[in-house]
Amino acid sequence: MVKLISTKNLLNYSAENGEVYRVSTNASLPSVLRKSEALIISDEQQEIPAGYGLVLSKEPREGCSTLSEDLWHLTDGDVVRVDANRNLIRALYRKNANANFLFVTERCNSFCLMCSQPPRDVDDGHLIEELISAVPLFDPSTMELGITGGEPTLLGDRFIALLRTIKNHLPHTAVHVLTNGRTASHKELVVEIAKLQHPDLMFGIPLYSDIASRHDFVVQAKGAFDETIRGILNLKSYSQKVEIRVVLHKQTYERLPDLARFIARNFQFVDHVALMGLEITGFTRANLDELWIDPLDYQDQLKEAVHILTRAGIRTSIYNLQLCLLPKSLWEFSVKSISDWKNKYYPECSGCSERHGCGGFFESSDLKRSPNIRALTFAKP
Amino acid sequence: MALAKRFKQLDHFSLETTGAYNLLPFNFHKLTAEKYFCANLVGEHLFLTQQELKKLVGGTLPTSSDTYLELKSKHFLYGLDSDAAIDLLALKFRTKHHRIAQFTALHIFVVTLRCDYTCQYCQVSRRMEDEGDFDMSHESAEASLEMLFLSPAKSVKIEFQGGEPLLNFELIKFIVETALAKNISHQKNLEFVVTTNLSMLDEDVLDFCEVHGIYLSTSLDGPKDLHNRNRPKASRNGYETTVAGIRRIQERIGPDKISALMTTTAASIEMPREIIDTYVELKFHSIFLRPLSPYGFAIKTKQAAKYNSERWLEFFKEGLDYIIELNQAGYFLVEQYTRIILRKLLTAENPGYVDLQSPAGIGISVIVYNYDGDVYASDEARMLKEMGDEKFRLGNVHNDTYEQIFSADSLLEGLEETLVESVPMCSECGYQTLCGSDPVYHYATQGDVVGKKPLSFFCNKNMGVITHILNLLQEPKTRKTLESWI
To answer: Is B12 within 8 Å of A217 when comparing Cβ atoms?
Structure first.
């Protein structure tokens, strides 16, 4: 688990220098470039070079801000945001991470039972402005960027502005937006998105049931099902890529084959379906008894759903489930999906021959995980 | 334990009470005393008991029941919580019918009516090998290609028919090369197939087919005695020639380049297993159990009248059972007609098979350029003409424009008058979305494009086949086999 936030000792920092910096360990950059860089100074460095937007030191040092150990992983090309008021520094982008997510707002129009990022109704418009100014600092060879919240599309024009900035500064980067799709039920937003003509943009949209009231219950919003359905239809009618995401838990697993049939019949044109294990964080903790089911107990439904979807020619993946819980026939659909900064393994896993192909666990699996986790000792066929 | 306080229970979101739902259109068909097959206008389907059906229609189905949820999921009804069903039905209807805007997919070129075989059941009334004036001219071929490229279809298949088309191989080469040259500017997905008895197959033909990725389709009626009896040839070695040709193509340009079709005669009808074995022995993974069509010599020689639909269905069922058995024994073999029905039943798509569409496939799925430049609405339409009836002759490539041909009265009336959604008996049939309309067949057999369905072999056959397939799907192991064909 890699920590992304540190709240220590932002000495000698003045917000006038701007709030977003690219990390550098090069103390001899041309001085005209230094203003937008955060230098991590090495202990051997005798003098503190002038002109850097921010100078960070691993050990307390006169004239430097101290970088807490949680952020010692920061390296050249990473991008950080500095919040002087809260004495906080946060990694926005890590050049070598297998996934980078841009967190654009805490606000949301749904209130999902298992939300991993419980929404708050706050005025956090500064978040997206900082990201819009940070994107040009990202490495253009970045493979993929995620956009998440909250509900990113609630930001309307500013959401479009972020997408445009990404497209213009990182033209080769794939973009994956996590959205509930409800605002896309209004054509206007979809038209604006389509106008960007982004070459590699995908919308990941959750659909929890083939039955409207069940979906509305899971997302705790009346009418959400119809909005999401119409959002998917609008996005596809403007040739946008759509992924349907289904979180598997006690309220969704029983009708999973029905949902798969529904998707195969109605949304055969979607680009991907992700069937996802539950992350024990956020609201899931509060509702654990109503959500938790040992994944081993829904494998029949999962198998049938994957069969229905793949037979309809729909690309299908399984996320967040450990190989020892899946029947071998489903292994080929399993993806190592947990971001490197939050995945881990447990003592039960020691000696497992399949760890290289297994996504492992969320940090939050400390709280709850299947009692059937075990080390496998055979080779993948 | 329950949800945390800030969350609402499922009841809060379920706005339905018994009776508070709206029915959407659907048809049903009684399978057994207790079991009803119900299907809506996009082919979503389920089985209900008579009780359930009555409750559903009477508005008394409990909204908490699994049946209610299934009906709702499949858009037979919608409740107070959601009306997305109507958008989704519209979408599925468009998907099922998107081929209409993409007409015409199959263009048949009758490059000659001459043939070296003397089949009793010949449905196209072939001419002797040495008769003159039955070959298509270069001018007719060019004019037909002009017309072909006016089709809105992006994917176009050119099928060479006869007679025996390889008797006019020079024209086939001309058409393929001209079509490819024209296609540089048109950019359609072009595919070619030659329907041939393979007796004229030689290195030149193989080379040409290999270079241009041309498919070959032949007739294979079954084992040697049956095949030679059904398909006589002066040299009496039709079976040997055909089998040798099939093997040669499989080895030389690949097994997927050759397919075969069988026609069921009175002699065939006794031996479905032997026929199927012939296909397996030749390593075919596809067979199409087809009845005789009542055209051409099949009528003249009374071949088509020798068995009725009941007898044909027995043959079909026995054959299909055996094919399923072979699949379960480890040999993958698809029965094509069953596959078409299954795709209509179990997928969101429409396989676009000419005979099972509404509007009918004439003109929309297929068009025929006859050797003399005449244009016909389907292969059967030109068969009818050779019997002296020009009802479905749409025009001539030299005298008529594309617009004149595709708005010919006989075509448009044939399409408009035979929509299954409006035709007596079809309009209320539970199998409506699995079936289709065949105006040429009904005109040929009953003198009317609609026809009386109880007297129709087409209707009896499809009712029987579909019922049989629905019954087969009830058995899980068989269902798995059938699903693997989609």
So the answer is: yes
